[in-house]
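hey so i finally got around to running the thing on that chain from the lab meeting. sorry it took forever, my laptop kept dying and i had to restart like 3 times. anyway pasting the input first so we r on the same page abt which one it is
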Amino acid sequence: MSEAPVLECRGLCRTYRDGSLEVDVLKDVEFSLPPSAKVAIVGASGSGKSTLLNLLGGLDLPSAGQVLMQGQDLAAIDEQQRCELRNRQLGFVYQFHHLLPEFSACENVAMPLMISGAGRRQAEARASELLAEVGLSERLSHRPGQLSGGERQRVAIARALVMEPACVLMDEPTGNLDPGAAAQVLGLIDRLKTATTASFVVVTHDAGIAAHMDRVYELTRGHLEARDPVSEQGSALR
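ok and heres what got predicted. didnt touch it at all, straight out
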């Protein structure tokens, strides 16, 4: 018997209203993410990629249809339950790192563990291990303002992994980086594909990232369709 999906969409729709105007951003999206899968979602700017990612992460709720996380309908539970589920099961990496500026790299990575109830010493020990794995063992006490853009993004990736989530959601993780830093982050993501059992959903315009994923999906006119990551990536990333 196959394992249950980590994330699943069933007839997912998201409509935004502005006065009498209705904009259908997502239309009957069907999506199933197996355990340990690594997928990219591509599409033109404004196609709804970030909207879809927010729905997958329970940061927004659908106008119709369902998002299931580990079989749990996110719209059927309250906000506190969604927060707890996100903390345990999901890691988030954004285009802008969203690190807390007053805390060190180690403290930023340890924060989700401490929120979940872990002691400070235990949380920071685990954070130190992860920062070493992303090549930042000499930056533990540095605050975000003392780190380069690429280093800050690697801290954000370590933070996303610290709870050992079932899935990591990434929204344009290299979009705010120079080419050199972007290449470093891409290399890290590539290594994580085999180093962790977490599933990855990466929203990206970066052809390099998409080509390294197991599967590519394109969001066009509100519909999500599978694309071949090799033969069609050029058109998918237009």
